[in-house]
Amino acid sequence: MTSSAAVGIDVGTTNVKVVLVDPAGSVVGTAQRQLVTHMDGDIGEQDASDLWSSVVSAVSEATSKAPEVAAQVGAVGCCSQYSSIVPVDADGDPVAPMVMWTDKRGTDHSFELLMETDDALDLWVERHGIPPVGGGLSLAHMLHLQRDRPDVHAATSTWLEPMDFVTMRLTGEVQANQGTMFMSQLCDNRSLGVTEYDSVLVERSRIDADRLPPLGSQEEPVGTLRPDVAAQMGLPDTALVYGGVNDTVAGAVASGAFGAGTAGLSIGTTSVLIDTLAEKRVDLDHELLSMPGPFEDTYVLWAENGIGGRALEHILLNVVHAVDELADHHTGDEYRMLDAALGSVPAGSNGLLFLPWLNGSLSPASSPTMRGGFINMSLESTRTDLVRAVTEGVAHNLRWLLPFAERFTGSPMEEIAFLGGAARSREWCQILADVLDRPVGSLAEPDWAVARGVADLARYRHGAMERTELTGPADLGERYLPIEGHRARYDEMHEQFEAAFDALRPIHEALNS
Q1: Most buried of 48, 192, 194, 278, CB within 10 angstroms?
Q2: pTM
Q3: Crossing angle of helices 48-64/162-171, nearest 10°?
Q4: 189 to each of 178, 197, 298, how far by Cα in Å?
């Protein structure tokens, strides 16, 4: 077996995280950089050049912490948020900002495809899984760039998802794969390991096929590091860069979701339930489907639950610690007293219920017009009640999704491996265990789990790990069991949580349509 150190790069919505892993599998260097998204109505964009600069800077910092290990790096892997498109020229330079997954432009063009023929819905569902409905999908973004921005389209050589953009800048090679191009909706996902787009879907999409990146195998290296990039990053230019994956797939690796009875849960900007299955499945009623996994015999559950940690961040930054005309409540670390605040409020937040659909709802009931907020607020409600209610509301949204996800995969999620920044909060871990009514284990170093997952995936593809090692149980830092005395209260609150969605949906449709 090959002995090799590795670098894992995780490009999220709000930051870039990098880990350096030594040949024994230990993390010896980490670094992160913040990313900024420009939001304006339907528009959601990031500066892709700044993203690349952040990657270079973060890798350089991580390798500087253990240069002797960095010199042994033989494999580099990258994962990212997905359903975002970077238009690049023939030199790999962005010709416009990256169109983010939050961007709704191109939805009208997608629906035109859906309405053109009677069989369009069935065709896309059967072959790919998702019909062309826009709403932030990559196919809509590419159609928007092609039809609405002819100057950008004329300058574009290739459309790339963010992980493929980073891989291209690392190697100089333009290559995507079936997994990274999942949201392009142009691959036949009834089988895995395909390296060609589906000709019928491409034709029906009216997409400019000349702008699509070539597909390769995600199990093979894309190329070696460019010498100039390697020098900037403090890495050997012999290091192989492997095909990218999306961050949900990397989360499946990190959480041990390949084991029976174990599911992963990532709460970052959004909340995502993660599990694996052996075949392509679709449940459009509850926004569940299977997407290509990291191996050619495994699919990964796609179960996007919507806004998660971003809801708590929003309340902490804009309500509890707001800086505005009323006062300056900024503390420098808005999360420092989070656990103390959560622990000071009883289960059920003194009757306060938070609805987390701040950007529309996703699985298990999709509604782009749905919005969130607090209900049952009284004169006795405090800001600590608000904060605990937010964490409970995110947990109730996951509880609503859980039985549909279990039915979809056919496997019970008996224990949840929790990763992402939210897993640092002991109180939030306990709240999740109580609301979901099953054990929750926080991953060791949960902030770096996804970057670690993609580093380990690169090590496996490089021959430095066995598959059984890669897909074995996750390294859990602490395990939280449901508190029996909280069950009745959360059962009562959850019933009203689901009732609130049905009751308020017509109001939000009227306000936001």
Answers
A1: 48
A2: 0.93
A3: 60
A4: 8, 10, 11
Asked if 151 and 135 sit in the same domain, the reply is yes
Range of the domain at 301: 248-308+413-485
Q: Encode 438-455: b = buried (16+ Cβ within 10 Å), e = exposed.
A: bbbbbbbbbbbbbbbbbb
Query: In the block, which residue shows the tokens 């789990």?
Result: 449
Token reading at 218: 């995600």
Whether 298 contacts 276, CB under 8 Å: yes
Q: Where are the alpha helices (DSSP H) in 354-422?
A: 383-409
Counting Cβ atoms within 10 Å, is residue 123 exposed (0-12), middle (13-18) or buried (19+)? middle
Same domain, 164 and 301: no
The label of the residue with tokens 């907020």 reads: 373
144 to 156, 232, 258, 411, 499: CA distances (angstroms): 13, 35, 37, 39, 37
Tokens representing residue 337 in the block: 């007293």
Average pLDDT over the chain reads 95
Contact residues for 423 (Cβ-Cβ < 8 A; gap 6+):
267, 429, 442, 443, 446, 449
The two most distant CA atoms of the chain are separated, in Å, by 65
Could you report the per-residue pLDDT of 482-508, keeping only the tens digit for each? 999 999 999 999 999 999 999 999 999
Q: 167 with 197, same domain?
A: yes
- Please choose, from the candidates 417, 440, 308, the residue with its C-alpha nearest in 3D space to the C-alpha of residue 362: 308
Domain count within the chain? 2
CB atoms under 10 Å from CB of 32, counted, come to 21
Q: In the structure, what pLDDT confidence band is assigned to residue 425 with cuts at 50, 70 and 90?
A: very high
Q: Average pLDDT, stretch 132-141? A: 95
Helix, strand or coil, per DSSP, at residue 189: coil
d(CA 454, CA 429): 24
Q: What share of the chain is helix, strand, coil (3-state, %, to 5)?
A: 40, 20, 35
* Distance separating alpha carbons of residues 451 and 497, to the nearest angstrom: 34
Question: What gap in Å lies between CA 356 and CA 58, rounded to an integer?
Answer: 32
- The answer to whether residues 272 and 304 belong to one domain is yes
Residues 128 and 89 in one domain: yes
Range 375-386 burial, b when 16+ CB lie within 10 A, else e: bebeeebeebbb
Tell me the pLDDT tens digit for each residue of 304-360: 999 999 999 999 999 988 888 888 788 777 777 999 999 999 999 999 999 999 999
Q: Do residues 115 and 221 both lie within one domain?
A: yes
What is the total residue count of the chain? 513
